[in-house]
Structure formats: structure tokens, C-alpha cells
């Protein structure tokens, strides 16, 4: 029997509130998943980076991240760089993330974009369970491939599933499947020459100022000429931004501007620089 290719990685984090600060109370991991020590922000938020020291996902990898936020905690999560998905000969790479956001807690999940290499195959999922009065800002982004190497929509397949629930009821569900061989993304009505796609979900239980949020985000989108996007209300408790960009720098600028406005208007917190160096 051939030896299995790929590794099983696991990361479990639990945050709790202590003296108006959010602290990492428990941390457990198994490579290739890891986490850096959180930084305490002045507003009581715990800011931390999730790591994959191996440099990316390999076919056969199965990674599971489990995060629990207790009541009143504030957590901002990002990654130090884009997530690379390498070519696979058979099995896809699988990355699952489960996050519980406690009552009155806030989550900011802002990973860098995914870069699927030629011949790669990825299955990723994010499930967020929000308790009453919970709030969340969630970013999800994808590149067409390693553009500098001439790879553009050369990966095998990518599946993404995002499910966000509030008090046990669905708030936002999104499923994406991209198979460039079956349906080229460059065609009319899809990417049409753009190289990056992204979504920003802004969610808040008991929040009523959505008109101001949508107007502000719409204004930000219009101010970025190399980004094409729009924002709309969800049926309940949130709004969704969809956008495409021509370069990684345009994508990074869009993330910074849109997240900053959402953070200020929905979380009531000042923006800060997501320094990654």
C-alpha cells in the first residue's frame, strides 16, 4: 500500500474576557497549523495571526481549526501572507474552520487571499456560530493563480463553503465551486479579465444602522477605480460586499478600506494597521 501524502493539522483556541481585555485562555495545535502570541490592542481586542509554517497546503492535507470566543470577547484574526495551494496528484487539500462567537462578542476574520497553483485542488469551509448580540466581519478572497508565472485559472478545482448562523438560525450561506476546465472564469459575466475576487460579510445582531454602512461602503468602492464591486443588505442582520480587482495591491487596499469602515460603524472601534512584518 502506498504511503499517504499529506498531513493532519489541528488548531484549537479559546478566548475569554478578563478586566476589559480579551485573553487567549487555551491554545493547542498540531503542525502544520500554528498561531502567534496575540497582541493586546488598546480597545481590548486580541489581535493574532494564524500560521502554516510549511508554506502552503498540499494535496492530502486535512487541516481543522476550532476557535471558541466566550461572551464579550473581541478577536481579530489574520494571516501573515497569502495561502498557497500546491499541485496535487490525487487527493484535494482540505481546510475546515469552526468558530463560536459568544454573546456580545465580536469577530474580525481577515485572512489574506488564497493562491491556487496549477493543478491544485482545494476544499475549504468556514462555519461561524454567533450567539445573541454577536458581531462579525469576515473577508474571503481568491487569486486566479500565480500570475507572475503565467498561471491563470490553471488549477484543477476549488470548492468553498461559508455558513454563518445566529442563535441557531442561518444568517448567511455561500457555496462556491470553480472548475476552470468545465467553465472558464474569464468568460463574459464572470471575471472578464479581473484577477482577484473577494467577499466581505458584515454581520451584527441588534444593529440598526445598515443604511449608513451601505452608503459608506458604496462610497469607498467608487473611490477605487481598479476595483469593481457592490454592497447589498442581507435578509436579516447584515450586509454583503462582492468585488473583483485587477492586482493584489488593489485587493489589499480594498480590504483595508472596507474593513476599516465596517469596524468603525458596526463595531464602534477605531481602525488600525494590520502590520504583517
Write down the domain tally: 1
Biggest β-sheet, characterized?
9 strands, mixed
The unreliable regions are none
> What is the count of β-strands?
18
What is the strand content? over 45%
Mean pLDDT: 93
Fraction of residues in H or I helices? 10-25%
> Which term fits the overall shape?
globular
The chain-level structural class is mainly beta
Q: Radius of gyration, Cα only, in angstroms? A: 18 Å
SSE order, one letter for each helix or strand? EEEEEEEEEEEEEEEEHEEH
Q: N-to-C terminal Cα separation, in Å? A: 44 Å
Contiguous helical run count: 2
Would you write up a description of this structure?
The chain has one domain (8-207). The model has no long low-confidence stretch (mean pLDDT 93). The strands form three sheets. Strands 3, 4, 5, 7, 10, 13, 16, 17 and 18 form a nine-stranded mixed β-sheet that branches. A seven-stranded mixed β-sheet has the order 2-1-6-9-12-14-15, with no helix packed on it. The protein is mainly beta and 277 residues long. Helix 1 (210-222) runs antiparallel to helix 2 (248-267). The relative contact order is 0.12. Helices cover 12% and strands 46% of the residues. The chain is built from two helices and 18 strands.
